[in-house]
Amino acid sequence: MAVLDFLQRIFSRDNMSGSKNVAKERLRLVLVHDRSSVSPEILESLKEDLIKVISNYMIIDERALEVSLSNEDSSVALVANIPILDIKRRD
Amino acid sequence: MGEVIVITSGKGGVGKTTTTANIGTGLASLGYKVVLVDTDIGLRNLDVVMGLENRIVYDIVDVTSGQVVASKALIRDKRFPDGRLSLLPAAQTKDKSAVNQKQMLELCDELKAEFDFVLIDCPAGIEQGFKNAIAGAEKAIVVTTPEVSAIRDADRVIGLLESSGIRNPRLVINRLRPGMVRQGDMMSIEDMVDILAIDVLGVVPEDDSILISTNKGEPAVLDEQSRAGQAYRNITRRITGVDVPLMDLEQPDSFMDKVRKIFGFRR
Where does ATP bind (chain B) (predicted)? Predict the structure, then answer.
């Protein structure tokens, strides 16, 4: 049997391709939202407010702007990716 | 003074009732005095899982409404001597608003004066029925299966339990399939603990003997041959404070299983 175990280890496919990793990732994301009780609507309205404030200072790509919650270690972070097109000059 | 433990899950169909029946029967087998309370009003099921459905006269609503005293409504399981294991069945024809939280609290207080363990089988969901079920509980067991939906609901329930003052609920992972875990197609015990961040009370493997035992109305914990029964016996002992390691869920593969695996055939 030892030979078979050995062969199995060599030929077995990478476990990383299993669907459980997809499940874990999806769960992680959905739980971040569940736990923080921040609904997608709240995030959307936060996003609009952010655009308003930042537009006073910079010209940003509104369509590429991304705001999301992310789970790092045991803390939750608000992550915003805001592409800047140009800086407004103050004169 | 006994302990009041609620068995809950959020999602339906993950094995709350089976778990309640098996833990209760297991505790009675160890000599404890146990009462099982079915709080799933309108969808009574614990009675059939226990095989006691033909002996119901009164139910939980008869007791909480003050029509009969609790001792009169309890059904004694004849598999055990001296009324060591009893069931308080749910009402089948009423709805969940027939009982309130205050009544449940009083009922639990009354029962724990007389029993070592009061096990509350909680209905699915997080509405009134859930609130009633946890009202009198000091401890909680959360049942989940290795599925995204069940784990998500378990997480929600854990949060609700903790905000209701029931600290450190413990997890029972039900219907685990070690073969699928090995193939990377089912979350492992570690994965689930990692996500839910609570202590594991036990892991019950997927086992045909559960369906067979439910068919007969005899909890699998009484079946010495059943692997799920063994898992429940271990869980029962852990509840009484004995440190029992998690059982080895791997069953040795047959020669052909190994050959299939090498060549990548999935069953």
Answer: 11-18
Residue A19 above 90 pLDDT? yes
Q: Is the ipTM of this complex over 0.90?
A: no
Q: Where are the domains of chain B?
A: 3-262
Q: Could B185 and A21 be called an inter-chain contact, meaning their C-beta atoms sit closer than 8 Å?
A: no
Among residues B33, B37, B26, which one has the least CA distance to residue B242?
Answer: B26
Q: Which CATH code fits B3-262?
A: 3.40.50.300
Distance CA B61, CA B96 (A): 10
Residue of chain A with shortest Cα separation from B254: A1
Query: Is A34 at the interface with chain B, CB within 8 A?
Result: yes
Paired sense of beta strands A75-81 and A66-72, if any: antiparallel
Strand bridging mode B200-205 / B170-176: parallel
Question: Is A13 at the interface with chain B, CB within 8 A?
Answer: yes
Average pLDDT over residues B241-255: 80
Q: What is the pLDDT of residues B170-187, one digit of tens each?
A: 999 999 999 999 999 999
